[in-house]
Amino acid sequence: MAHPLRIDVDIGPAPDVGALLVRAREPVAALVFGHGAGADMHHASMEGIAQAFAAAGISTLRFNFPFKELGKSRVDSKDTSVATVAAALAVAKDACEGPYYLGGHSFGGRMATHAVVDRGLDVAGMIFGSFPLHPAGRPSTGRADHMDAIDAPMLFLSGTRDGLADPGLLARVVGRLGGTLRWLDTADHGYRVLKRKRTHPEDVFTEMAGYAREFVLERGRR
After folding, report:
1. What is the pLDDT along the chain (222 residues), one digit of tens a residue?
2. Residues in Cβ contact with 195 at an 8 Å cutoff, skipping those fewer than 6 apart
3. N or C: which terminal CB in the chain sees fewer CB atoms within 10 Å?
4. 69 with 140: CB under 8 angstroms?
5. What span, in angstroms and rounded, lies between the C-alpha atoms of 4 and 18?
6. How many CB atoms lie within 10 A of CB 189?
């Protein structure tokens, strides 16, 4: 069951935004997870991720960026996005047990990286779903240049058919950052899979949750 919350944002067009907290019954971690540029926190993929992660012992707090809270299509500025991520993490630390991880789907994950760098946020690690390394059809790595400043361990969950993350480039970036890369079998950027060709025995969100739990528990053993 998702518990609704409100998050105060100190800058930007919306003074506060909505959030949904899904608590795991036996939590091993909590994840603050922002949505992508095209859909808000209520999207079916965000719900699927939250429920699968909770079943794997990871509580999730997902939230709206101000532009979606206001029903707009154009994403917020980086400063507003960073402020929203920082505020969401603060609420999570009051609302549920840690250790606390930060990330998001696509745009949400990318803004989480800027929040860690710009605000010096203290997190146990970062978990990205479909990290948007580059625009579709324009392979590049510039969007990850600032991430060398992040000390926290990083997990990248990327579909084998993701058009916003060239496999070779993403592997190279993750290696440079000392992160962990797990490929989601036949998934595209929005987690749509090729059912006839998919060989992984579980659905894509359960696949993601399994990798995330493994990542969290490994961090705990170190």
Report:
1. 899 999 999 887 888 999 999 999 999 999 999 999 999 999 999 999 999 999 999 999 999 999 999 999 999 999 999 999 999 999 999 999 999 999 999 999 999 999 999 999 999 999 999 999 999 999 999 999 999 999 999 999 999 999 999 999 999 999 999 999 999 999 999 999 999 999 998 999 999 999 999 999 998 766
2. none
3. C
4. no
5. 7
6. 21
Q: Residue 170 and residue 176: Cα distance in Å, rounded?
A: 10
Residue 89, classed as helix, strand or coil, is helix
Give yes or no for a contact between 41 and 18, defined as CB atoms under 8 angstroms apart. Answer: yes
Which CATH class for the 2-221 domain? alpha beta
**Pairing relationship of beta strands 125-129 and 154-159 according to DSSP bridges:** parallel
Query: Please, what is the angle between helix 204-221 and helix 44-55, to 10°?
Result: 50
The domain locations on the chain are 2-221
**In b/e form, how buried is each residue of 61-83, taking b as 16+ CB within 10 angstroms?**
bbbbbbbbbeeeeebbeeebbbb
Angle between helices 107-119 and 78-95 (to 10 degrees): 80
User: Which residue type sits at 152?
Assistant: A
Cα separations in angstroms, 49 against 120, 161, 173, 194? 26, 18, 24, 18
